[in-house]
């Protein structure tokens, strides 16, 4: 029995419904949705040719050219990919830009091959509109709390242990600070916004009316910008302030930015190339704050970093704690203390991780 084409976007996103995007690869790269594969009807070059033909000769000629470009073995290979996806995801859907010609052609070619597979009515544009409107509504109607604290106080770890929370850094695939780059890169801005909207949709659906906890972030998490309305709401929301000793923050930063970062790079690149990428990552990250540190202090810290990396490569990673401690005390702590004085939201509670867990369990 065939399934109908879909219009219930809320259910699609709540169920992590698998979909495939029939738009060209460049369109997909600019932004798509979670649990979505890129299986285009046309390549970027083919789409460009059809677009030019459409402008010069009209729709009928453009469609005719499209069928010429995607025919024979090329067509057979693409249809086979779509059929394979349908077999792997019998509960899925396909879509194009507006639910129009491209998705209809893909749907028909699959049907000709014996598989009746539904599409998303309205396509990418309608789903994107739904997520934008959902995000606007939930941010407007939902109370927020902001988990704040100095660099290294393990805010993200604490956030992920607490209910009714959304991990912005996880969605942005970045650790948030200047040193926060991770292998594999970040999602596009549109991908980030779509993931964020789905996270807010889930939180609102699972616990309507409950206050959502977010980590304190600047406008940019790496290159991903927090949407304006959410950023404004975060700026006036009550603050839960995490206290942690300097030594604990040094150890957390060491685990996060040395041990875990190196492990990620080596998993991505292999042991030797991974260490080189890790060392380059740290060196370039420090260079980004060269001007803020001042030339003399930057040079001192960079010398410490390079000594730590050389020693680390020989099997001893302990020297990293020295430049981390100096950077926390001389750069991050003064900057954060100033930023805290600029916040409009009241400090609702202040304590260590255990005290915060106890407080939030009763409030």
Structure, described:
The chain is built from 17 helices and 10 strands. The protein has a 5-stranded parallel sheet with strand order 5-6-4-9-10, with helices on both faces. The protein has 363 residues and is an alpha/beta fold. The protein folds into 2 domains: 9-129, Rhodanese-like domain (Oxidized Rhodanese, domain 1, 3-Layer(aba) Sandwich); 143-363, no CATH class. Helices cover 60% and strands 9% of the residues. 32% of the residues are buried. Strand 1, helix 2 (25-30) and strand 2 form a beta-alpha-beta unit.
List keywords for this structure.
single chain; alpha/beta; Oxidized Rhodanese, domain 1; globular
| Cα end-to-end separation | 50 Å
**Strand percent estimate:** 5-15%
Tell me the number of helical segments per DSSP (H or I, 4 or more residues long): 17
Which regions contain 5 or more consecutive residues with pLDDT less than 50? Answer: none
Quick check: average pLDDT? Answer: 95
Count of discrete domains: 2
What layout of secondary structure does this protein have?
Layout: H1 9-14, E1 19-21, H2 25-30, E2 36-38, H3 44-57, H4 59-69, H5 72-88, E3 93-95, H6 101-112, H7 123-141, E4 144-149, H8 155-159, E5 165-166, H9 168-172, H10 189-206, E6 212-215, E7 220-221, E8 224-225, H11 228-236, E9 239-242, H12 246-269, H13 271-288, H14 290-293, H15 295-313, H16 320-341, E10 347-351, H17 353-362
Helix pairs in contact: 3-4, 7-10, 12-13, 12-16, 13-15, 15-16
Summarize it:
With 363 residues, the chain is α/β, with parallel strands linked by helices. The chain is 60% helix and 9% strand.
């Amino acid at each position: 029995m065939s399934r109908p084409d879909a219009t219930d976007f809320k259910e699609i996103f709540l169920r992590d419904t698998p979909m495939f995007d029939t738009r060209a690869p460049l369109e997909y790269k600019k932004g798509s949705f979670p649990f979505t594969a890129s299986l285009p009807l046309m390549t970027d070059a083919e789409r460009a040719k059809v677009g030019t033909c459409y402008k010069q000769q009209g729709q009928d000629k453009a469609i005719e050219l499209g069928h010429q470009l995607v025919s024979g073995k090329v067509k057979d290979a693409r249809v086979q990919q779509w059929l394979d996806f349908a077999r792997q995801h019998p509960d899925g859907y396909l879509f194009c830009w507006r639910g129009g010609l491209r998705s209809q052609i893909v749907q028909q070619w699959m049907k000709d091959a014996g598989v009746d597979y539904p599409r998303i009515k309205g396509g990418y544009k309608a789903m994107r509109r739904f997520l934008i409107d959902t995000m606007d509504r939930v941010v407007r109607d939902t109370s927020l709390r902001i988990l704040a604290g100095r660099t290294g106080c393990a805010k993200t770890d604490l956030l992920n242990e607490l209910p009714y929370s959304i991990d912005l850094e996880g969605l942005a695939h970045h650790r948030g600070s200047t040193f926060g780059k991770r292998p594999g890169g970040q999602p596009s801005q549109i991908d980030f916004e779509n993931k964020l909207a789905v996270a807010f949709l889930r939180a609102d659906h699972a616990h309507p009316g409950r206050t959502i906890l977010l980590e304190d972030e600047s406008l940019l998490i790496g290159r991903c910008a927090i949407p304006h309305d959410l950023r404004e709401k975060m700026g006036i929301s009550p603050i839960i302030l995490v206290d942690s000793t300097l030594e604990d923050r040094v150890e957390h930063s060491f685990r996060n930015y040395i041990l875990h970062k190196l492990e990620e790079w080596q998993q991505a690149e292999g042991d030797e190339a991974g260490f080189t990428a890790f060392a380059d990552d740290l060196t370039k990250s420090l260079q980004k704050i060269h001007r803020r540190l001042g030339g003399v202090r930057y040079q001192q810290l960079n010398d410490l970093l390079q000594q730590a990396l050389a020693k680390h490569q020989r099997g001893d990673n302990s020297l990293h704690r020295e430049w981390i401690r100096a950077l926390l005390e001389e750069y991050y702590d003064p900057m954060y203390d100033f930023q805290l004085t600029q916040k409009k939201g009241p400090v609702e509670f202040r304590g260590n991780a255990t005290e915060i867990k106890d407080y939030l369990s009763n409030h």
